[in-house]
Design goal:
This protein is α/β, with parallel strands linked by helices and 324 residues long. The protein has two domains: 148 residues, 3-Layer(aba) Sandwich (Rossmann fold); 139 residues, 3-Layer(aba) Sandwich (Rossmann fold). It is 47% helix and 20% strand. The strands form two sheets. A seven-stranded mixed β-sheet has the order 7-6-8-9-10-12-13, with helices on both faces. Strand 6, helix 7 and strand 7 form a beta-alpha-beta unit. Helix 3 packs across helix 4. The protein is elongated and about 60 Å long. The N and C termini lie far apart (68 Å).
Amino acid sequence: MKKWIALLCACALVLSSVSVLAEGKTYNVGILQLVQHAALDAATKGFQETLQSKLEANGDTVVFDYQNASGDTASCSTIAIGFVNNDYDLIMANATPALQACVSATDTIPILGTSVTDYATALADPEMDASVGTGMNASGASDGVNAQLYVDMVLELVPEVKNVSIVYCSAEANSVLQSDQFIAAMAQTNPDVKCTVYTFADSNDIQAVVTAAADEADAFYIPTDNTAASNMTIIANITMPQGVPVICGEENMMAAGGLATVSISYYDIGALAGAQAYEILANGADVAAMPIAYSANPVKEYNPDYAAAIGFEIPEGYNAFTAP
C-alpha cells in the first residue's frame, strides 16, 4: 500500500510539473509611446503583434502595459519610472524622447526603441557603433533614411528650386540631426539651393512658423518629427493653398498633409523591435550587444490628393500612397 501511495504521489508531481510547463512563462512588457499619430501607432502594433506571436508559438504569453505620453516629455519620465517600479521584464520606447526617458530611469531592465532615427544622437554617444550594439541596456530599430534620398527627391520634383524651408520641432534631437544631414547633402549636391531652418517649440507655434516658412519656400522638407507629424493638417492648410510641394520624412505624415516621401514601413520597424524583444526574453540575448535594426528598401511615394490640390504632376517611379 505504501508503495502505491508513493507512486501516486510521484505521478501527481510529474503531472503538476507538466501542467506548469504547458502553461509557459508570462512576461510583462511596458510600452511608452511619445504621442499618438499613425506612424508611431503602426510601430507599436508591429511590436506587439510580432512579440505576442513569437511568444505564443513558444508556449509563453505577454502582458503589455501601453502608456501614451501625449507629446509631453515630463510624462515620459513619469511613465518610465512607473515601469521600473513595476519591475517589468522589458520596456519598448517608441520615439526618441521616450527612449531617453527610459534609459534615464533604469540601467538594468532591457529597453528597445523604435521610431528612433539615430541612436548615437539619442543616447548622447557619438562614438557608438550601431552595427555592434549600444554597449548599454538599450537597442532597437531605426526609422532612419539616408538624407541624400530626400535631397534627390526635392531636386527631381522641383528642378528649379532655389529655397527649401526645413521645418521641425526644436525639442526633438533626431529632427535636428536629420535637418543637418539634409543641409549637408544639399550643399554637396547643389550648393546654389538655399536651405532655411524654421523651428517651433511646440504645437502652439506651428501655425506662425509654417506661415513664415511657406512665404519663402519653393519646397518644404519636414523630417520624421513627432510634433509635426501630429499636426500635418495644420501644416497642409497653410502650404496647400500656396501650392508648396512638401517632402515629408515618412508616409503617414505625407498622407496627412504632404506631397511625397521616401517611405519605410513603421509597422515593419516595430516588428523588428518585436523580434529583438523575443530574442531577449525567450533566448536570453544581450541587449547591449544587439545591433540596431534598419528597414530595407525605402521606396518613393506620393499623395495623389495633395498633388491634385496643388496641380502637381508626379514623374514616373513614384508609388501612389493608399491607406492600409
